[in-house]
Fold these 3 entries.
Entry 1:
Amino acid sequence: MSAADVPGADAAGLLERVDRGRYRSRSPEATAALGGCLGGVLRAGDLVILSGDLGAGKTRFTGGVSAALGDVRPVTSPTFTIMAVHDSGRMPLYHFDLYRLDDPEQLDDVGIFDALEGEGACLVEWGERFADELGDDRLDLAFRREEGRDADGEPARLVVATALGARSAHLLDDFDARVRALLAP
């Protein structure tokens, strides 16, 4: 893989691999490039839960995932629609935003269990509140703003990945390898 294979790779200079599963993004474009690394290794049935405050970069990351899958349409947060499907790439990407849900019983109503059994991968913003119901094999990505500001007044983001389950452990290894390849001189 070369940097040209990852959408947003021109921002790779603003991306840092701190350690396996720990990445620092210093721009929205670098966050999208990080998402592109994950998009390059996702498989149907993969579940990724994205957690972090509003504005932490979850949707920008999802845009990078979607672009790496080959869907060039813009990604916006499905806060009011709950689910968006990005399906013009190599496989569907089901993008959920569970911020407005209050009860695990609502998960079935929004179609998340159907999507988890579908032909694509699921990225779930605000899914940490329902992690027990969503599944035991998942990749959790926590987005956190750091202290300090860049030239544009934005803080860097630290993204911490935790694999839960056998498939997700392989997914994290493949994701990390993609990030290393993107950052290699």
Entry 2:
Amino acid sequence: MIRINLLPPEKRPRISTLRLNLGVLVLAVVVFGGTILLTHLWVSEQVKDLARIHQAREAENAALMVEVGWVRRMENEMKAIQDRIEVIKEIRGIQSLPVRYVDALISVLPEERIWFETFDLDKNGVLQVKGVAMDNQSFAAYVEILRTSAFVRGVITERTLRREVQGLTLVEFHCLVMFGPPPAEYYQQKADHG
């Protein structure tokens, strides 16, 4: 049997699928927009923090550059002072050399065999010596001893001749003694021994 319902259909509240889809779409847009907004706010805050850190680092860098400049000026001044000290040491070393040259000449002199009449030291460290010796052997022995000095660079005998002095026959000599600063090993040996 067939039944036919002639009654009007029941009215039920129906949400149309279009409205439902529209609601879901709006909700998704709101959630997505909120997520984007929150992400934007978070990233903006991170950028602000990084900008503050960058400014602090820039200020610190500027302060350090001032310090670096001051340190470099001090280094340059220290180098200039060190250079001046080296020049002063060199000058002081050179100033005492003439005294050392004469000391090297006199300290090995056999006083009872050789006598100086004159000696003249020029600025190049060459000493002209004129004097008398008891004999040629005394003069030759003195020259050999003199050549062993750390300050003596060479001895050139210009002439020797016999001369009568107060009834004695002596040997008159004229020689050049070339002096110079001793090698660095001389100072090292002096430092090691005393």
Entry 3:
Amino acid sequence: MFLPLINQGIDDNGVSPSKNRLYYGWIVVASCTILLATTLGICYSFGVFFTSLQEEFDWNNTTISGVFSLYLLLAGVFSIIGGWATDKYGPRRVVLVMGAISGFSLLLTSEVDSGWELFLTYGVLLSMGTGATYIIVMSTGSRWFLKKRATALGIIGAGAGLGTMIMAPLSASLISSYDWRDAYLIIGIIAWAIIIPTAFLLKKDPAEIGQQVDGITVGETTDSQSNLGAKGISVRDAVSSKNFWLFFMIWFSYSFCLHMVMGHVIARAESFGISALKASSVLSLVTGVAILSRVAVGFIADTGDKKTIAIVFALIHGIAMFWLVDADSMWMLFIFAILYGLAYGGIDPPITASIGGIFGVNSLGSIMGVLMIGWSLGSAAGPFVAGVIVDHTGRYEGAFFGAGLIMVLAAFCIWGLNPSQNQIPELEELPHE
């Protein structure tokens, strides 16, 4: 995946080396992908442990679901802190601390004997250890690239789907072979074994090792152009801009739909007499298509207009939700899965890359951390709103149709973005290789 992108880089003395030298930014991308796959894979496999926790402690659905809801809520809080810390101290130190906490929290989770202990070890400590991962890896990846930023972020984002596809069946296998306590113990050790060593590969930006953004070599561009990656506006200036609140609404809408689908599409399928096993294949297909879509669209977004591409995928997102309104058979659900996976994966690279393009990367971690509030609110509101509508009407149609309208609204928000407002140089100003 990364081999075609080698080329460029300069040594510590600013001398252009062999053209076959790997630009360190791609090592950062690989590290970020591994980190995102590990942390989100662990978190999103929580549902695999649901039945085991119910059987051992006789807890109700509200108690166990509340643990994950608390995790999602606090993940938004720790994203703000993690983004700020990454801007100030660099990703290596922050991820090392988070990795240590992650493994420790899972080891403690394997020993819980009461509900409040699970709320503390998983809901609080694990969110402290993993909640900011997305913000950290995306802001770090953005600092290393301008012309290939969407490609890099698409590859990193694919780690989320890969992690879920790997960790969920691994967790199920460990529970089957041992029990849920041993499974969490082993996963905690895996977290330490992967996150901590990988953290040492992270560098904050090209300047830390004497390279330039995109691996541009001396003589290819002017000093002002080669240092565009270091520019950016403050968090205060970003929050006071129209662009920030448009991004906020885009992330809220995207998260609202995603978590509504993840939380309710299987129940919707079961309401039509489809087995849970068959229905779960819909989510597997969504994840698989989304992985491919992230990488492909990331590459396309770097060669085209990010704004237009993002609008197209926001509208596909909406069309998928409208289709789901009447999806009452497996073939209709599979079409939904393909459409939704395409949209879910495709909208993220151009949007995330545009955040760095509009605000710059100087305070990008902090800015994305604050934007994460929109994502967290959407993740809480989507499943909740669907649940309320179903409780009152006994049907899902209104929830899914409303989610489709929200994604149409998101498309209008993308259309309203104004890259020139914050005076960050456009990517097109950079020379092509």
